[in-house]
Amino acid sequence: MAGMPLNDMPWWRWRANVRSALHMLSDPAFHQEHWVPATPGYGDVTDAVYRLVEDTWLDNWSAEKYIGTVFRDTQEAALVDVAVLRVLRIMHQVGADAPATAYLRHHGWPEAVRAAREAHVRLAAADGDDPDVPPRSLDDLAAALRSA
């Protein structure tokens, strides 16, 4: 999140949390390197889903509600909605406290990852960031949110 200023959107902190969650959810290498071994500082699947829906309530209504405040346009909102629905469906099926491997083995996980990737790429590009850099730690995210 080093391209465009983080604070160019009215609710940029929410956007940063959503972007961080989508980034982690969209990266299979990250899952294997950090979530499967439970690397400290990177949370887990449940934590990522929580960041995705915590402030935005995207588990209750469409991202379209936040166009102009969190999301730049209808395409961003639509891609985020698809990712949220796919990830939440799996979370409800395997359980919020399930280990990362339960998510990764779920038959719908590749499609959820693909949807998160599409949303992540769109949001990163709109913010002038490289979507292919590895996800940052939660400490890095917290520092970025404090410093801006």
Write the topology of this structure.
Blueprint: H1 12-25, H2 28-35, H3 45-53, H4 74-94, H5 100-105, H6 109-126, H7 138-147
Helix pairs in contact: 1-3, 1-6, 3-4, 4-6
Brief description of this entry?
With 148 residues, this protein is mainly α. It has seven helices and no strands.
Index terms:
148 residues; mainly alpha; single chain; globular
Characterize the largest beta sheet: strand count, sense, and whether it forms a barrel: none
The N- and C-terminal alpha carbons lie at a distance of 11 Å
Measured on Cα atoms, how large is the radius of gyration? 14 Å
Q: State the helical fraction.
A: 55-70%
What overall geometry do the principal axes of the alpha carbons give?
globular
Give me the count of strands: 0
Q: Give the SSE order as H and E letters.
A: HHHHHHH
Strand content: under 5%
Residue-averaged pLDDT, rounded?
A: 93
Q: Given the helix and strand composition, which structural class is it? A: mainly alpha
Low-confidence blocks of residues: none
Number of helices: 7
Task: Walk me through the structure.
Helix 1 packs antiparallel against helix 3 and helix 4 packs antiparallel against helix 6. This protein is 58% helix and 0% strand. The chain has 148 residues and is mainly alpha-helical. The protein contains seven helices and no strands. It is globular, with a radius of gyration of 14 Å.
